[in-house]
Amino acid sequence: MGRWEPNARGRLEQAALELYIERGFDQTTVAEIAMRAGLTERTFFRHFADKREVLFGGASMLQEFLVGAVAGAPASAAPIDAIARALQTVGAQFDERRDSVRQRQTVIVANTELRERELIKLASLAAAMAEALRGRGVTDPAAGLAAEAGIAVFRIAFERWIDDTDQRDLSHHIRESLAELKALTAGASSHGVREGLGQVPT
Amino acid sequence: MGRWEPNARGRLEQAALELYIERGFDQTTVAEIAMRAGLTERTFFRHFADKREVLFGGASMLQEFLVGAVAGAPASAAPIDAIARALQTVGAQFDERRDSVRQRQTVIVANTELRERELIKLASLAAAMAEALRGRGVTDPAAGLAAEAGIAVFRIAFERWIDDTDQRDLSHHIRESLAELKALTAGASSHGVREGLGQVPT
Question: Between the CA of residue B22 and those of A96, B29, B37, B65, B107, what are the distances in Å?
């Protein structure tokens, strides 16, 4: 084989996802991933620092992208709209590679450590989007809340997209989840909330 | 010293928090905590499995409490109200021990691993509250969204409570953050959200 391997990164990623699903993440070695991809371990390490980076290597690009999308939303966009637009554009990208995103999710869900890493990634994305909103002049607590609520909407929409037998777009589920959150919070009774204080149900 | 130590658990907790703040979590040993509390290591290990459990030992009780509060909310309470009530009652407990909760937060914020553990704890609380809502007959995505949004509100309220020089109650900040989330989502333009699709800002 020559030094130049066509689409080595993509082939390694696909081989890794298959093996993580077949054998489990912990049971898979870099040597096995390289062999499945028809490449060498050395080539693997030219593309990924370790086998976990196959799953999380895209996180910093995703963050840059979301931050750019929030910053680039029209000046007139409300905070939650700037967040929603950013998530929608990510959603469109996920739709384009639905199969590998689903495979990745299967791997993550099956492993406690990876689930925790994914949570930390999402929290970092929320923090970065909140910061991008502050850069647009949005004050706290609105900036933090809009970003956290956006990530909550995205997580729920993502789960529904993964399970959607009708294969509707992720953007469809994001719209639906945002509408649902709006309906939920609109239903909050300030009376009920105040009543809660000090009443400890047993 | 006799075998029975008055309030050993509380003394160990206080000694641990002080040392974690003074020296850092990683640099503190169980032996030092026991010495500061005027107790033995053996006594420490009767109360805590390790030095991290001093910070996270209350998580399962907190979860049981929140789940009980959600389950015990009046049948007429809207999902977000059931969550808000549960958080309010926890808030009242935090207010009663404001100093140690603040000390704990200082320790958590200073250490990456502890911050990650705290995130995972909050995600578990959201999942447990979502399950409690399902037990009340709330369907998805409402159950998951209400719980996630509730945790987002709680996190923001908690941060503001920690920084509040006026020392207002945590329940005050929870009410305020929930109202803010309501205002934010009410401002979401479904038009703006749809427009977002496919427009990748650069």
Answer: 51, 13, 15, 32, 10
